[in-house]
Amino acid sequence: MTKKKLQANSLWLLVMIIGFVVINLLVYVGVIDSFIENMLVTIGINIILATGLNLIIGFSGQFSLGHAGFMAIGAYATGIILQTVPTVGGFIGSIIVGIVIAIIAAIIVGVPTLRLSGDYLAIATMGAAEIIRVVINNMKITNGAAGLFNIPQFATWPVVYALVCVTTIVIVNFAHSRAGRAIQAIRDDEIAAEAVGVNPTKWKLAAFVLGAATAAIGGSLHASYIQTIAPSDFGIMNSIALLIIVVLGGVGSMTGTFLAAIVLGVLDTVLQSFGTLRMVIYAVALIVIMVFKPSGLLGRYEFSFARVLNRHKKEDAA
Amino acid sequence: MSSLLQVEHVSKIFGGLKAVEDVSLHVEEGELVALIGPNGAGKTTLFNALTGVSPATEGTVTFNGVSLDKKKPYQVAKMGIARTFQNIRLFHQLSVRENLQAAMTHRYKEDFVSSILRLPTFTKKEALVNGWTDEILAKLDLSAVGDTITANLPYGTQRRVEIARAVASDPKLIFLDEPAAGMNPEETADLTALIRRLQSEFGLTVVLIEHDMSLVMNLAERIYVLEHGKLIAEGTPAEIQNNDAVITAYLGGGVHA
Question: Among A150, A228, B4, B186, whose CB has the most other CB atoms within 10 angstroms?
């Protein structure tokens, strides 16, 4: 049992390293130009943001539309700090500051709103994200509606790649532990979960806070990669763009979130040559997928090396 | 005052409706008590008041010497009271194993860092939890369906899983709300045996709401009868069967059996 787990974990580590080496090699050889690299980084940041949102929506069952708000907190923390301390240390520090502020904001937003459910919660979280955006829009330190320019670029693609791996490991391991079982129980039946000793407020808040923290990381990377941020980058449409990734991949499937982020990222890049027709094709593609796969590309399917290894063993035995 | 569960003068009032009125009862440790009454008598309301789902308007409930007043449902569960529901409430997207393990979360601690980094303490805790799960699955004959998603199980098995989940939360007292509802005679017979085992093998105190009189008369050591929110009779199955007030409540006035 433990041996098999070790094998599966080593395989995952191998996949992460091979992915890194291959992309690095392709950059070195020149197959990946700055155009494709930009696409890869965007996909990476979207994966970080969407896995956090999937934890909130798919695993704890809380329909949140406020993800862009927490992303804005991370982005502005990094933007402001990097303009005064343009060092690697400043970048790391700014990510931590962003996470801490996002956690505090998530607790303030979560405690009253997580009593709501479904559409009501969606509207409340959307409102909370708007409040964050409006506050940023009117503060001096954030440079108001004009936003921040010339943020030093520390979020190169290896940094983004490493953080994709880290946040994914954190979220997946969280979802497959005592905490994950508690939040999934609440998602399926809150009254029954309470009747077996699960404190719904505590666990819903835990999932919400962790999701918000990853959103802040995504925001920090966004700010330091794009180098320009403005309050309008973090509106309701950005929350919905992330929601699309989660729903398209399959609510509750982290593998699906990865797949959807990659598919949409590639589609977005490929369609750039189509000009204004791009949004039409993008929309049609989304509608077609939702008509033929209403539960998302992968539904609730989760890829697992442990299962593949098990199947292999069984076939060998047979 | 040594009763495991002591209910004193509990009332539950919804607006102008007294759903439960001045009910006092007690359950001793290790007992198997049934609560019966016609539809709408307030049985489930009383259960909900006792487990904190919708707290009683008046009266006190003491469990194991501790007052349950103002306790939230999850706190009541942690104190050792488990329950099943009249209409099955399983975690339907989770497997049977995960259903049981979700009920065990308050039995052990697992900190964030060790579960994220999969430290040895985490592995040890998971092994412990898996051990508990295997044991309950084996004892309740559910090992074969351990990895099945509960939504895909037949009705009778779902009922069984719900009882298993209640057992998994390591209770002293278990409330069963109409466990035999919708079951065929064969399943009811299995269930009767299972409830008996909860008492004998798991050492649980059982309080049961049920309409299936054969099951109640077969199992219960003591019976409370509720009608229109009031307790109208208490006694052994034999006493209840010959109680005029109970016969009137079930069959209407003027009928003598």
Answer: B4
